UniProtKB/TrEMBL annotation:
It comes from Streptomyces subrutilus. InterPro entries: DUF305_CopM-like, Ferritin-like. This is DUF305 domain-containing protein. It comes from the Bacteria. Residues 83-227 form the DUF305 domain. It holds the Pfam family DUF305. Residues 39-80 are annotated as: Disordered.
């Protein structure tokens, strides 16, 4: 069947009419030009071209931009102290969870506990790698200029050295009970840390990592409580 030259021309015209910047802007913001033109307050430039209504921050007025301006605007997600504190602390927090989980295959008696430990290791090992790569891209400030150090007492949910020795020496049902107790507290501490990052951080990647921790570890806390 012969191709319709008029259809091809129409498609080319449509492609030329909407530059990539306008398409990107349309994915992120509401184009006032797509609103009902008869509705009072519909935004448009003086020359009739549609404009983008960009919501302002809390307490600030909305702005009107051209689609090209809106597409070129990028939010400032420069990492702040809360982002660095979360990533540095969570790396250490995850490492302890891996240490505890590594004891389960030889010491746990319940298959459910063994499977739980396997899932924790499978999830948190890659997360450590992602956070270490993030730190390589965004080095933390020096300790004397606003950096954040972390000890076990500074992070919620971390098991003490004595508790780790007790877990290492336990076997069978005793190990199962202690592992679930310590790991539940450990996860609850991680949820607090993630909540602090989501409330005070500024970096999109850190927000995504913290959101993933909230999702996975909330589910595991519920599972461990049911097992206990």
């Amino acid at each position: 069947m012969a191709k319709d030259p008029r259809g091809r021309k129409a498609r080319e015209t449509r492609r030329g009419r909407f530059p990539a910047a306008a398409v990107a802007a349309g994915l992120l913001l509401v184009l006032a030009g797509c609103q009902d033109e008869d509705r009072p307050g519909a935004a448009a430039a003086e020359d009739g071209r549609p404009v983008v209504v960009a919501p302002g921050k809390p307490g600030e007025k909305a702005r009107t931009l051209t689609p090209e301006q809106a597409a070129g605007e990028k939010p400032d997600d420069t990492p702040n102290a809360a982002d660095h504190a979360y990533v540095q602390g969570m790396i250490e927090h995850h490492r302890q969870a891996l240490t505890m989980s590594a004891l389960a295959p030889q010491r746990a008696s319940a298959d459910g506990v063994k499977r739980l430990a396997e899932r924790i290791a499978a999830a948190q090992q890659p997360e450590i790698g992602a956070m270490e790569r993030w730190l390589a891209r965004h080095p933390a400030p020096q300790a004397g200029s606003g950096g954040h150090g972390h000890g076990h007492g500074a992070m919620p949910g971390m098991a003490t050295e004595q508790q780790l020795r007790e877990l290492t020496g336990a076997t069978g049902a005793d190990f199962d009970r202690l592992f679930l107790k310590l790991m539940t507290a450990h996860h609850e501490g991680a949820l607090k840390m993630a909540g602090q990052a989501l409330a005070g951080g500024n970096n999109v990647a850190v927000e995504e990592m913290a959101t993933e921790v909230v999702a996975t570890q909330t589910a595991e806390v519920h599972r461990m409580r049911a097992m206990g």
